[in-house]
Amino acid sequence: MTALTVALVVVIAAALVLRWRRPAWYWLVFGAAFAAVRVLFQYTSVMDACGLTVPPSRWRLAMARLANRPVPESRAPRILRLRPTRTGLVLRLKLRPGQDAFDVSASCDRLRHSFAMYGVTSRELRSGVVEVRMTGYDVLKRVQMPAKTDPAPMRVPVALREDGAVHYRDYRTVPHGLTLGATESGKSVYQRNLVAGLAPMDVALVGIDCKQGVELFPLARRFSALADNPNAALDLLEALVSHMEDVYQVIRAEQRITVNVPDAEIAADIWDLPDHLRPVPIVVLVDEVAELALFATKDEERRRDRIITALVRLAQLGRAAGIYLEICGQRFGSELGKGITMLRAQLTGRTAHRVNDESSANMAFGDIAPDAVLAAIQIPTETPGIAVTGDSSGGWARIRAPHTTLRQAVNLCNKHAGRTPDLPALAPFRPVAGTPALASEPLAKAAPATA
Ligand SMILES: Nc1ncnc2c1ncn2[C@@H]1O[C@H](COP(=O)(O)OP(=O)(O)OP(=O)(O)O)[C@@H](O)[C@H]1O
């Protein structure tokens, strides 16, 4: 045996062992090429076995009869493009007459087994063209975001989807969002990723952290306003409502100028205003929203009603004024009192981490994507951070945010502290950077020593 043959055998053996062990980088080196060859080689027979072929047309049968040739075979969708990616393959298929996108999506599980891939999903790109995304390994096991994402204003690459695509939180298309999940399910890490993604953008961050500020106050240098208790939250929300009314006046004033100018665009929201007039957009992050809705006394009930009213007004009118809500909690249903379901109806973007019961999952998806409810309650306990995300179009996907630690988020916020806008309306709530207060008393006092 020559040295070359030995080297070849070693390389093939290494590739086979790695294929079996499947480390994350396997796909970068061997996986995509192997999978592309395998898919192309098996394509027609697999599509036939999965019921994704159509019988020959009458015209083709007649031509074969005239030419005295054998009966033509059934035909599978035509491959328009096959693109290897960091996590697997993307196939673009042109459907044959009589096929629809549902046929392909209904066969995804069969395709997954037949092509020996980890996951297969499909979506319709346009009439007659379907994209099939295949992943070679569990991309949500250890999330690695691609180095290059598609940047756009108010669009944060916040997590990875199970098909290997990046999941964006786009505030311009989905202005308000609701994130639910049981305790230790990964809500705070998801919210931290949002803050880390928003920190380098021209946006004001406002936080209401009812966990006594433990999640958002360490990120204070990038926040224009923060509140850590329901009383401060009420004042902050009412200040935001009056800021929103001021922004509406700016938009109206600009409309009066342009309405007389023929063919001019008339401003309908802050994004139609000229740059020098446009107020900075605001993202309001609310952590543990149920704390704002609970009350024990008459006074607290009055405060709760005012808080929910302010939140409903921001959700209904905030988008045009560039105010976006990001609400986080363990549950968000009608048991929290009047106004909650009205507020929930305005929160278009829904994300549910692991939940403990079906009714919590229903709070996120019951009214928009019933099959996502089942997916949310199936999230295992041992993989915190996995979530199901959907929107009002009825579509949903499994996602996981990268594991950003509080230290990494703090460093990012400190790096971009210079971008924190000063909002005069919210000045009383601007956090003051300073030395952290030391706990004055230990939580448990030492028992006196007895003889
Ligand atoms: N995307 C993720 N990848 C890996 N680990 C994660 C991820 N998200 C969360 N975790 C792990 O799960 C733990 C709990 O996460 P997190 O604090 O975000 O949960 P939570 O839902 O906010 O809980 P609580 O409501 O009790 O505050 C974290 O300490 C972290 O180690």
TrEMBL record:
<feature type="domain" description="FtsK">
    <location>
        <begin position="163"/>
        <end position="362"/>
    </location>
</feature>
<dbReference type="GO" id="GO:0005524">
    <property type="term" value="F:ATP binding"/>
</dbReference>
<feature type="binding site">
    <location>
        <begin position="181"/>
        <end position="188"/>
    </location>
    <ligand>
        <name>ATP</name>
    </ligand>
</feature>
<keyword id="KW-0472">Membrane</keyword>
<feature type="transmembrane region" description="Helical">
    <location>
        <begin position="25"/>
        <end position="41"/>
    </location>
</feature>
<keyword id="KW-1133">Transmembrane helix</keyword>
<dbReference type="Pfam" id="PF01580">
    <property type="entry name" value="FtsK_SpoIIIE"/>
</dbReference>
<keyword id="KW-0547">Nucleotide-binding</keyword>
<protein>
    <submittedName>
        <fullName>Plasmid transfer protein</fullName>
    </submittedName>
</protein>
<keyword id="KW-0812">Transmembrane</keyword>
<keyword id="KW-0067">ATP-binding</keyword>
<dbReference type="GO" id="GO:0003677">
    <property type="term" value="F:DNA binding"/>
</dbReference>
<dbReference type="InterPro" id="IPR002543">
    <property type="entry name" value="FtsK_dom"/>
</dbReference>
<dbReference type="InterPro" id="IPR050206">
    <property type="entry name" value="FtsK/SpoIIIE/SftA"/>
</dbReference>
<dbReference type="InterPro" id="IPR027417">
    <property type="entry name" value="P-loop_NTPase"/>
</dbReference>
